[in-house]
Amino acid sequence: MQVCVFTAPLFSAFCALATYAFVKEVRGQGAGLIASAFIAMVPSYISRSVAGSFDNEGVAIFALVFVFFLYIKARRSARHTAVATHLLCAVPASACLSPDVLCERRGGSSALHEPTAARASQ
Predict the structure, then answer these.
(1) What CA–CA distance (Å, rounded) separates 98 from 86?
(2) What is the pTM of this model?
(3) What DSSP letter does each residue of 26-89 carry, written as one string?
(4) pLDDT at position 73, please?
(5) pLDDT digits (tens), the chain, 122 positions
(6) How far apart, in whole angstroms, are the C-alpha atoms of residue 12 and residue 71?
(7) DSSP 99-111
(8) Distance of CA 107 to the CA centre of its chain
(9) CA atoms within 13 A on the CB side of 37
């Protein structure tokens, strides 16, 4: 059994938990439950997080929401724990911005990594 098949659904569940934690931190427990239910039912996110989907959007959306949560947590926490939380923000943020996520799988390169002259000739 391949791990790639279950990566997107697993991170979809993580995204619902991260959404709950983020909105609970900002608005409260009831709003967090509603927001996590909404993210679980959004059709565009469901299409990116079905089993067997090999795109990175499911992981990137989780990382984005988790960075938002960690940022709010760091802004509201004490000074000694804020540094550790900011360091934790760097891990999912780097996953969102890594060249593998930015590159297209079929073409093997993205417009961000090509020289301007190469893009103009296409």
Answers:
(1) 18
(2) 0.67
(3) HT-HHHHHHHHHHHHH-HHHHHHSSTT---SHHHHHHHHHHHHHHHHHHHHS-HHHHHHHHHHH
(4) 82
(5) 577 778 888 888 999 999 999 999 999 999 999 999 999 898 888 887 787 766 777 788 888 898 888 888 877 876 666 666 666 666 666 665 554 544 444 444 444 444 444 445 55
(6) 20
(7) HHHHS-TTTS--T
(8) 23
(9) 6
**Tokens read off for 99:** 């060249």
Query: Angle, to 10 degrees, between the axis of helix 79-97 and the axis of helix 57-76?
Result: 160
Give me the phi and psi of 114, to 5 degrees please.
-95, 145
Rounded Cα–Cα distance for residues 47 and 35 (Å): 18
Both tokens of 81, joined, read 């724990």
Q: For residue 92, give both structure tokens.
A: 């999912």
**Residue at 86: amino acid letter:** H
Q: What is the Cα–Cα distance from 111 to 107, expressed in whole angstroms?
A: 10
d(CA 119, CA 93): 27
Distances (CA, A) of 42 to 38, 88, 94: 6, 27, 25
